[in-house]
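User: Fold both of these, please.

Assistant: Here is the first one.
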Amino acid sequence: MSDLGAGFGYLIKGQRWAFGHGRWFGFGLLPALITLVLYAGALTGLGYGADDFVSWATPFADDWSSPWLGLLRNTLVVLVFVFGMFLAVITFTAVTLLVGQPFYESLSEEVDRTEGGEVPESCLPLWRELWISARDSVRILVRVALYGVLLFALGFIPVVGQTVIPVLGFCVSGYFLSEELTAVALQRRGMVLKDRLTLLRGRRMMVLGFGVPLALAFVVPFVAVFLMPGAVAGATLLARELTAPPATDPRPASPYTLQKD
């Protein structure tokens, strides 16, 4: 549980850092605003088209009597929109990071610089960085889509589908959201996707403590925009923690310690 609280603490620290550095906060808003406009249009279209899509996908229910027809299709409309929101939470970050790659990399470097210690810098050309980010984002989104399909199917289970499954959905969203955000700092440290996922699995509760509250906040579109600079800053602080060498005990060994032969 301490790791869970520590992860949430890095989220708060990142927001404080961003709001305390006004120029960098404004610098990090632009990519999120561009992405928000794109996603607002997509979700509006989904909201208007979900009814028609569900009716098209369930022709077998056309002859059902009331209230079963309405119950089935209304439930499916809600699930389709929830599934769309689930994907939007994950892809919003991926697309925003891709659009704002130079912005967020500079912001992440500044966080490292203000916190002291080593400040890793990418020596790759911009096109190469964009290619790596896009490729890794697609790989992550494939994983998310597989989880999403599974959770969507489990959503039909009575009671469990309306209680446990949404919670699991936000946990999945938060975990991969953390991966996308920490990738900015970890890529500068030379870590490939496989190594990043291994690193995050080793501190899963800390990663969830950072990502799940952020995923919940990102459900509100305008909140996502204003939290994005702080999310990148917090993810950089989290990455510093995850990659820090293990602490050693500064105390000298006791001369009375028994030695084994």
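And the second sequence with its predicted structure:
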Amino acid sequence: MPELPEVETVMRGMSNALQNRVIQHATVHRHDLRWRIPASFSQTVSGRRIMGFRRRGKYILVRLSGEVSILLHLGMSGKIVLDSESTPAPHEHVTFLMHEGDRVAYVDPRRFGALGLVETAAEDTHPLLCGMGPEPLEPQFTTATLLAACADRKAPLKSVLLDQKIVAGLGNIYVAEALYRADLHPALPAASLTRPAAGKLVRAIRAVLNEAVEAGGSSLRDYVRPEGDMGYFQHAWRVYGRAGEPCPRCPGPPACAGVERMTQSGRSSFFCPRHQKSG
């Protein structure tokens, strides 16, 4: 599933292509995505100008004239296709015909994505957004806020970081990479996080996310940018998906046998046992 850098990249691509453009008409070909697209969707968005974009966690908000926003989640396989073909593509569930005549499509083979509507002024009170934690790239995400969130939490640090109520937008890939840079084991009890370690982790999270956004995200399976290009950050992964490979910072055997993989809550965690200690 796309994480913060991929969603940010998609949002920026949409903004570059669609800011201040008018949606002449929207056609919903299929309403039954992860959550049903509102019956009023086409009527509501047709004829409105796109005023701006905002990302909240892994959601994109397309702000339209008239103080209404489209709430978009890409799910596992959703993508925005700019300048799409005149004939709807397979799995094209929503088509936006722009005022100039070109088409923008939402394509989602697995249908785990979502398209909804919310009043722009009420975005932060929407049920899907209201419980989210701070954005990791904004000033509200600090050493103090992370320490407070981890206090008295016996759960593994990785699990806490994946909780969208603690910090918004993080997923398996970027948590693994940030923990590696901060020299923290994914199984470390969250409550044992010290202030120096929390500060190092906050800096690592920001660095990893910023680098990934600059690289256009990580392309896995279905993810591409709206322009059709692939992301490239997967080539910079230091531990994620590299079980059995040498740690980039280790001298190799016998000091370190390489990156290891473990399962936490049904998901793979990757780490260097030499640099990342669990206690």
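The chain has a mean pLDDT of 90.
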